[in-house]
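Entry:
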Amino acid sequence: MSSDVERTPKRGLVVAIDGPAGAGKSTLARGLAQELGVPYVNTGLMYRSVASVALREGVDPGDEEALRGIAAALEFALDESSTPVLTVDGKRPGAELTTADVEAVVSAVARHAEVRSVLRAAQRALGAGGSVMEGRDIGTVVFPDADVKVFLRAEPDERISRREAERGTPDAALGEALERRDALDAQTNPLVPAADAHLVDTTGRAREEVLRQVLELVEAARRNG
C-alpha cells in the first residue's frame, strides 16, 4: 500500500469515484454522499485551489517547489453541514476556481509529483473517516482500499454538453479544451480504472438512474463486508 494509506488508516465507509471531466462525477458523488450521510470530497477543487493561488501570486506553473509550498500551506478541511463538504482556508471553494485562467493551468500544476504527494495525503486524511471522494486516482492511489470503486465514462459529445450546462452557455471551443486537458492529464496520471472498479457508462442516462445503480453497489458491498 502507499505511504498515504500507511499514515492514515481507513476508518469508515469510502466510495471512490474516478473518471474524466464531464462524465458526471460531481453530480453522482454529491448525491451519493447525501444518501449515505458521509462527507463529499471533490479533489479537483484542491488542485484548482493551488492553481488559483499560484496565479494570484505570480508563481510559474513549472515551479514545483513553490507549488508544493502553496499546497502545503493551504488548509483543507470539512465543514459542519449535514453533508460535509470541502473547505479551503475556512471557506467553501467559489467560482474563482472555475475561471478560464485556472482551467488553463490546473493540469500543469497537477503534473508535479510533489504537489500530488501533498494533496493525496490531505485527501486521505479528509476521507479516511468515511466519504464519497471523486477525482482521477482515488481508487488506484488515494484509496486503493475503498469499499466501493466506481469508474465513470461518457461519450465525448455528452461530456461537452454537460460542461456547457455547468457554465450556462454554449462554448464552441469546449470540445477542443476537454481533449487538450485529457491529453495533459494523461501525461501525469493515466486515466485507467482500478482492477476492482465498477465501470459505469453515464451516456444518455438520467442522474437518478446512475445514482440508484451505484447505491445498489454500495449496499451489496455492505452486505458482503
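Residues 13-213 form a domain with the Rossmann fold fold (CATH 3.40.50.300).
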